[in-house]
Amino acid sequence: MEHQHLLLFIKEQMSHLTKHEKRIAEYFMEHPEKTINLSAKELGKITNTSAASVIRCTHKLNFKGFTDLKLAISRYLPQHEQSIYQEIKQDETVDSISKKLITRASHTLEMTEKHISDESINQIVDQLYDTQTMIVFGVGASSLVAQDLYQKFTRIGKQVIHSLDTHFLATAIASHSKSCILIGISNSGENNETISLAKVARKYGVKTVGLTQSEQSTLAKIADFYLIHDASSEKSLRLAATSSLISQLMTIDILFYSYLSRNYDEHVVTMSKTRDAVELYIE
């Protein structure tokens, strides 16, 4: 398995491992240089586990075996900097902050690609073509994503309703119930306003799309369709919703361009008209 940010990836899989497997994975992260020179038996002895536990751990991390993992670590070591796992520190240099955030952004985009479901995207695009109006909503950083979605689809002539007034959106759902779709955006999938709008949509027979980080979230379970985005790096850097925002925006881009490609020539004509309208306004 090739992974540009291998050690960060291993760290994010810890919750899926048993107690013994976590001990082994921690050794991978803390001593990558030593790991590549050990046998499974030797590592089992060092970690007070067993060779069999080492093999099981590597399989859970999506490697073919311990040798495969060691090869991946060997490829990664020249790029490894322990600092990428750390929080932003007091008086940190711009160069150091840039490297950390760019590394996290790159990792987030890689993981977003893994989460994207072709089937889900195609099903949602089908629904968008079958409805006249999109109603989009998000709170906080997710509101920025909702605005991006609103702007993109409006530019190609799709009717989109976007507002932070949830009472207004609830009435819009009821009044457009025969021809609309609700897209709720929530990183956690537990935002009360987003969930309440999804419940209103269900009451009026309106299809709902949830964009969230977990298929086990309340929003994903309520929605008729859901898109899962990556937010794994958020756990170690909560100064801002950087990782989830990047992942959400990329997921929306994939949805938008998938929609665009279904009727590309017509949409390009519409986008040209809207661009001309902006230029005319500026003049």
From TrEMBL:
Domain HTH rpiR-type positions: 4-80
InterPro entries referenced in this protein's UniProt entry, alphabetically: Homeodomain-like_sf (IPR009057), HTH_RpiR (IPR000281), RpiR-like (IPR047640), RpiR-like_SIS (IPR035472), SIS_dom (IPR001347), SIS_dom_sf (IPR046348), WH-like_DNA-bd_sf (IPR036388)
PROSITE patterns: HTH_RPIR, SIS
The name this protein goes by in its record: MurR/RpiR family transcriptional regulator
Alphabetic keyword roster: DNA-binding, Transcription, Transcription regulation
Pfam families (UniProt xref): HTH_6 (PF01418), SIS (PF01380)
Species: Mammaliicoccus vitulinus
Domain SIS per the UniProt entry, residue ranges: 124-265
